[in-house]
Amino acid sequence: MELNTILMEAPTCIARIIAYLRNQHLTLGTAESCSGGLIAHMLTNVSGVSDVYEGGVVTYSNALKSKLLGVSETTLIREGAVSAAVAQEMAAGALEGLGVDWALAVTGIAGPSGGTPEKPVGLVYMAVAGPDTLIVRRHVFNGNRESIKLQTAEAALTLLWESFK
Amino acid sequence: MELNTILMEAPTCIARIIAYLRNQHLTLGTAESCSGGLIAHMLTNVSGVSDVYEGGVVTYSNALKSKLLGVSETTLIREGAVSAAVAQEMAAGALEGLGVDWALAVTGIAGPSGGTPEKPVGLVYMAVAGPDTLIVRRHVFNGNRESIKLQTAEAALTLLWESFK
């Protein structure tokens, strides 16, 4: 694994996210599939994040997406695990499953295998759920597995920060 | 142990873990507190890990340790979140909560704040639960927050590998 993926400095937006949530007395949880814990790792590199970050789940299997986040098996079958619908259900399910005010969820294909013409490697859906908020966004990233994970985490944290405004 | 050594060794250990579990048709889950998702991140940097890795939880708060892993509130109060008893309950709870054959759990103090004379920064308990197995180990690591997270992840993955033998 590359040094910069693990040792990287937390993006500026993480400090802003933590400050906003702390100021508002709100909590955050994460629900990750293709980013595989990287978002949680980046958040928890910041001392004091435990004031606002309750924790998260890495629901790599479909079974765990249903068990921990309540993602509907029908949605998983009909739309596929990498879909806007599943990202939304993961984020909404994390609000309840983790007991938090805001939740950030991602599902995608980090590669190098698992891609199809319709759903290529690098396709990622990310969703934010919060008070009166449910936002989903689609990305297609280029690069190797670690690069796609990193781009996913950075874009997801940016989406979360933008959702507060 | 130097940081570079840790980064060199971890992937080799992970490849062995994945190969063993795949060969035995067994699954793995993780339950992380102080490592904050880094173990999940390191595992999911390896393509094909989804054959054996169902996923994990990052139970940063005590509430999530109880909710997702069934850690007893009495144990949390009596022993503290950073204790051998909580590490064992996290690992045992992950077997059921994640529906896996093997579980790796860590709880500790990554610092720089949160240390006490009895429980200093760098104190980490890690536990492995599996078929006829429940192992717990105590470490005290030196270094900054990110270094302690890295040393925790490396030692935990090594403990898991050793537990298979």
Structure description:
Two copies of one chain form a homodimer. The first copy, chain A, has 165 residues and is an alpha/beta fold. Chain A has seven helices and five strands. Chain A has helices at 3-7, 12-24, 38-44, 62-69, 73-79, 84-98, 145-163, and strands at residues 28-32, 53-59, 102-108, 123-130, 133-140. Chain A has a five-stranded mixed sheet, sandwiched between helices. Chain A is globular and about 45 Å long. Mean pLDDT of chain A is 94; it is low at 1-9. At the A-B interface, helix 1, helix 3, strand 2, helix 4 and helix 7 of A face helix 1, helix 2, strand 2, helix 3 and helix 6 of B.
Identify low-pLDDT runs of chain A.
1-9
State the total count of DSSP E strands of chain A. 5
CATH-defined architecture of chain A: Alpha-Beta Complex
What is the subunit arrangement here?
A: homodimer
SSE arrangement of chain A, N to C = HHEHEHHHEEEH
Mean pLDDT of chain A: 94
Strand order of the largest sheet of chain A: 2-1-3-4-5
Number of helices of chain A: 7
N- and C-termini, Cα separation of chain A: 35 Å
Round the Cα radius of gyration of chain A to an integer and report it.
15 Å
User: Per CATH, what is the topology of chain A?
Assistant: Maf protein
Strand content of chain A: 15-25%
Shape of chain A: globular
- Computed structural class of chain A: alpha/beta
